[in-house]
Amino acid sequence: MVDSRFFASLTMNWVFQEVRRGMNPLLSGALVSLMVGGGWLGITVQNLSTQMASELGLQGPEGALVVMVQQGGPASHAGIIQGDVIVELNGQRVKNTDHLRALLGKSSPGSLMRLKVLREGEQLHLSVRLGERPREAA
């Protein structure tokens, strides 16, 4: 089992590498805050690199790595935490952050989403009801 501090360290190392290369990961689109359609999940995700996937014990860089969960948001209430990798949404494999956004794009507040996430080498099945994006988050 992988210590959850590993995920935070892995994410921060990636951010520092991006900054060192002269990139701002928050502005470059590498991190994606998910507010889709009218539904709001309350997470920020990033794509997995091949190296990150390998370090997480995954076969390839598929899925979306959760790097931030807004406290009190729908994802937080559902039990999603930083370091989770979202690999399925409503039974469909999640390829990357853009694919996750597309899968969620037709959803509206109140929609119930079934997620399969990887956490410290274990698969978890979670349900989350999408909310409305808070005005201050817009």
Strand coverage percent: 25-35%
- DSSP summary, beta strand count: 7
Order of helices and strands: HEEHEHEEHEE
Quaternary assembly: single chain
Sheet with most strands: 7 strands, antiparallel
Could you name the CATH class?
Mainly Beta
Number of helical segments with 4 or more residues: 4
Rg on CA atoms, Å: 14 Å
Distance between the termini: 37 Å
Kindly name the structural category: alpha+beta
Low-confidence stretches: 1-8, 24-33
Number of domains: 1
**Rounded mean pLDDT score:** 79
Looking at the structure, what is the overall shape?
globular
The CATH homologous superfamily is termed PDZ domain
CATH architecture: Roll
What fraction, in percent, of the residue positions are helical?
A: 25-40%
Q: Fill in the CATH topology.
A: Pdz3 Domain
Quickly describe the structure.
With 138 residues, the protein is of the alpha+beta class.
Write up what this structure looks like.
The protein is α+β, with helices and mostly antiparallel strands. The chain has one domain (4-131): Pdz3 Domain (Roll). 26% of the residues lie in helices and 32% in strands. It is built from 4 helices and 7 strands; from the N terminus they run H-E-E-H-E-H-E-E-H-E-E. It has helices at residues 4-20, 50-55, 74-78, 97-104, and strands spanning 31-36, 39-47, 64-69, 85-89, 92-93, 112-119, 122-129. Strands 1, 2, 3, 4, 5, 6 and 7 form a 7-stranded antiparallel sheet that branches. Strand 6 and strand 7 form a beta hairpin. The protein is globular. The N and C termini lie far apart (37 Å).
